[in-house]
Amino acid sequence: MNVAHKDISKTGAGTVLDVEALRGDFPILARRIRGKPLVYLDNGATAQKPRVVLETLDNYYRNYNANIHRGVHTLSGEATAAYEGARDRIRKFINARANAEVVFVRGTTEAINLVATCMGWGGVQRGDEIIISAMEHHSNIVPWQLLCERSGAVLRVIPINEAGELIMEEYARLLSDRTRLVAVTHISNALGTVNPVKQIIEMAHARGALALIDGAQAVPHTAVDVQTLDCDFYAFSGHKLFGPTGIGVLYGRQAVLEKFPPYQGGGDMIKMVSFEKTIYNDLPYRFEAGTPDIAGVIGLGAAVDYVTAVGLDRIAAHERDLLEYATDAARGISGLRIIGTAKEKAGILSFVLEGIHPHDIGTILDHDGVAIRTGHHCAMPVMEFYKVQATARASLAFYNNRADIDALIKAIAHARQVFH
Amino acid sequence: MHELKDLYQEVIVDHNRSPRNFGKLAGANRVLEGYNPLCGDRLTLYLNVKDNKIENITFDGSGCAISVASASLMTETIKGKSTGEAEGIFHSFHDMVTTDSGEPDFDKMGKLVAIAGVRDYPTRVKCATLCWHTLHSIIQGERASVSTE
Ligand SMILES: Cc1ncc(COP(=O)(O)O)c(C=O)c1O
């Protein structure tokens, strides 16, 4: 019943990725944009999908589409097995202890909202404190603001320095016995900063607070082990991990999730319903009310298999090399200012050009086939900090190569020319 | 295939680099900020309106080349016009940048035709229309206040 699992392109032995072969796994990379080959450098927004993911989705809908957990017929059995099989592989991917800790949600945004909502119902009170950081995506800001509004809790923000790194001494100062939860991003989508999350989690725990890590930008670039990190929650989106849109994961420590009240009510999240009393289902089903994105989960399972086979260590090494190459080249462009110069960075080159607005850069680059993101990257406080309205951002995936970076640099030169 | 130079015409590059009527207007009796949350462009219009005539208009703020050049050209075009005439130009301008039929009409639109290229870039149309929508709101607001008197 499973898709004839095609081997990913032979990447060869050793530690170096055969990027050219891997590119062949991504049909969209053959596209031309305005007559030019596509240079896709907007992976931070969403990543492209390898053929095996597309085929897995297609195969599910063609051959064993059925609802899960509720049919005795063959198709339902197959769909349930594929869905739960994917959960098991995703659990291994982040090294969670049990499948009970892997909750499927729509994406990072919903994962964080789930935690914030349940914490609100679960007793966050006036005077309690939630700590986030100055480099968070709006999805790791607004749910906490809502929680604070409803509960009277107070939001505290860890400041950043000019390089775009968290000021850890300030974090230590913000922590107190009132801190209920610390929520920070693993890798910043606007700056590329890799945060010292293990230390952040340890410090939170030392004060009796929970720790949530926004892993949206981390899982495509670095191996994540939730047991080593010892976080209470880890959130990520499938679509940035070469999987489908509409599916994501909330890892939650079992002991913590068990104390949470249900998030949404409906089918699948219950064991028994009567008008007098409803008995909720076990984890993780208690948090998966209704028919889930079955195809999305199965597709994400295929994406995780694919990334694992490519090898996150090799991916990290390749991207480190590529980011260094891009950073060196960008530094050579006069009038270009890199936004985010942390010592530990991954995958992201954010910049502004003197005299040219990021949106104009984006349009001109698109003309040359180069897709980047321009704007505030859903991190308006970061823009505010650097006193810019917007930045241009190139974000990498393992299928990017030096030719992509050369095209980017050439297109930036073109933009300079247009605005001479 | 749309040529990039159709969008970034010399006129636009020039008006972006040295926007006309740029800065606050002393004695303005109508001020409104236009904001495009999608891209963060912020423009403030300052008008001096007397007897339905736009005696003076300036703008400040920051945004992409298209939005700055569009605002610059707009101020040049409507200075001295009646609010009714300005509304008419707003509608013609809107049509010009949102329909893709035919050559823009230079006789009717004058130097505003330089902006017509954005219609081939749907994601950028809002940049060009931000200042015009702001102007439209000011004029509508004025009408509203007139009607309540
Ligand atoms: C750091 C970070 N957090 C959260 C999100 C939100 O992810 P999603 O929109 O998939 O829920 C993103 C995506 O842009 C992100 O980069």
Care to count the β-strands of chain B? 3
Strand content of chain B: 15-25%
Strand order of the largest sheet of chain A: 4-10-9-8-7-5-6
CATH class of chain B: Alpha Beta
Indicate the structural class of chain B.
alpha+beta
How far apart lie the N and C ends of chain A?
59 Å
What does the average pLDDT of chain A come to?
Answer: 95
Mean pLDDT of chain B: 89
Give the N-terminus to C-terminus distance of chain B in angstroms: 53 Å
Low-confidence stretches of chain A: 1-6
Q: Can you tell me the overall shape of chain B?
A: globular
General form of chain A: globular
Topology-level CATH name of chain B: Sufe protein. Chain: A
Q: Let me know the CATH homologous superfamily of the largest domain in chain A.
A: Type I PLP-dependent aspartate aminotransferase-like (Major domain)
Poorly predicted runs of chain B are 144-149
Q: Multimeric state of these chains?
A: heterodimer
Strand order of the largest sheet of chain B: 1-2-3
Our Rg estimate of chain B from Cα atoms comes to 15 Å
Q: What Rg of chain A, in angstroms, do the CA atoms define?
A: 22 Å
